[in-house]
Amino acid sequence: MKRRNHYRALLALQLVPDMGLRRIKQLLHKTGVEDASELFKLKISDFTKIEGFGDHVARNIVKFDNWKEVDSILTKTEKTGAELVSIDDEEYPRLLKQIFDPPILLWIKGDKSVLNSEGIAIIGTRRPGKYGMQQSTEWAKRISEAGICVNSGLAYGVDAISHKKALQSGGKTVAVLGSGIDVIYPAKNSNLARNIIENGGAVITEYPPGTPPDAVNFPARNRIVSGMSHGVLVVESGIKGGSMITARYALDQNREVFVVPHPLDYPRGEGCNYLIKTAQGKLVQTLDDILEEVSVSTDGYQHYTHEPKTRKWEELQLSSELKNICEMLAEDELHIDQISEKSGKPTYRLLPLLLDLEMQGAVRQKAGKYFELI
User: Fold this and answer.
1) Beta strand extents in 169-268 (DSSP E only)
2) What CATH number should be reported for the domain whose range is 109-291?
3) Buried-exposed string 155-182: b where 16+ CB fall within 10 A, e elsewhere
4) How far from 64 is each of 39, 58, 69, 334, 349, CA to CA, in Å?
């Protein structure tokens, strides 16, 4: 009953004019109350003593009388079978608390413990091409098999593919809605939402039951997707759209941004390439590229193995001449003059050999005629 009163009061605070999430968070922190209903017993003078609370806002709290609407929301919540998690509950996502404007309340269906799983968000366009679909599937599989939770927004395209593959890989996944917990959008993903809930994942939202999927809700939804994650992986995105908004949220929240690269003439990948070009996101090719940037535990997960560390040249059928060059480069990158000195071959003889190795994907040429193994 005590927690219900607390949630009831938090709902009421969100209905108080001119409060806002940041101010509610500040009020809870400054007063230190365990039961928010105690706040509605305070006087105007009590509120005005708190930094950031003037007479106008204080009066709005003290004079609040829309409890009928608050109780209606609680009744609808119970009818949907959802639970409430407040910002001061243990189950509330720890990372999400750190952002500038975290939700004060979350509606959840599913396993509350998964909200604090170490997670990576996978995001992208609602209309991915063949490459985007393949990359979404592959990355969701890699991340899930490492024991990391896949977070996304349950939208068509990259979101839905990532959720599905996480489940197929035996992993956990959290879907964040831009609507009420009882309003799955798009409706075609209702079965997917049910599968997430039934397989140890969770579907969450900051919007009360019955809230429609209005366009203005989705940018706010995106800040939750990135805020509860250690990093965000942008699989496929144009230069505009929700994925780019989420990437910007992630940067503002001090989260890592990872990016799958795309061909230069592919419009659906322009946003990804732009993030890489402007150093706003890290180009990733293997799971290690993500794991070396975020502090997540992958110990004890039997499915997880690091990508093989064997060099490409060791898998190729090379002539003794080409093998000899690769063995020289095994220790470190070398300038062509150093290779010439070690091999006893003039540079004009080495250049076609090195080009051959480059074409086979065994060697990479760097600036200044330096060469290294791939």
Assistant:
1) 173-176, 202-205, 231-236, 256-259
2) 3.40.50.450
3) bebbbbbbbbbbbebebbbbbbbbbbbb
4) 11, 10, 11, 74, 85
CATH architecture of the domain 2-80 equals Orthogonal Bundle (1.10)
Rounded CA separation 182/111 (Å): 17
Give residue 162's identity as a one-letter amino acid code. Answer: S
- In tens, the pLDDT along 155-177 reads 999 999 999 999 999 999 999 99
* CB 325 within 8 Å of CB 339: yes
pTM of the prediction?
0.78
Distances in Å between the alpha carbon of 256 and those of 137, 283, 290, 307? 21, 11, 9, 21
Residues lower than pLDDT 50 in the chain: 300-308
| CATH of 312-373 given 3.40.640.10, 1.10.3210.10, 1.10.10.10, 3.40.50.300 | 1.10.10.10
C-alpha to C-alpha distance for 26 and 19, rounded to whole angstroms? 10
Q: Round to whole Å and give the CA distance between 289 and 233.
A: 11
Residue 29 host element (H or E)? helix 20-31
Q: Of the candidates 86, 114, 146, which has an alpha carbon nearest to the alpha carbon of residue 229? A: 114
**How is the chain split into domains, by residue range?**
2-80, 109-291, 312-373
Domain 109-291 in the same topology as domain 2-80 = no
Tokens matching residue 16: 């108080």
DSSP 125-190: -SS--HHHHHHHHHHHHHHHHTTPEEEE---TTHHHHHHHHHHHTT--EEEE-SS-TT--SSGGGH
Neighbour-count burial of 197, counting CB atoms closer than 10 A to its CB (0-12 exposed, 13-18 middle, 19+ buried): middle
- Name 251's Cβ contacts closer than 8 Å, sequence gap at least 6: 257, 280
Whole-angstrom distance, CA of residue 338 vs CA of residue 151: 49
Residue pLDDT, tens place only, 325-358:
999 998 788 999 999 999 999 999 999 999 999 9
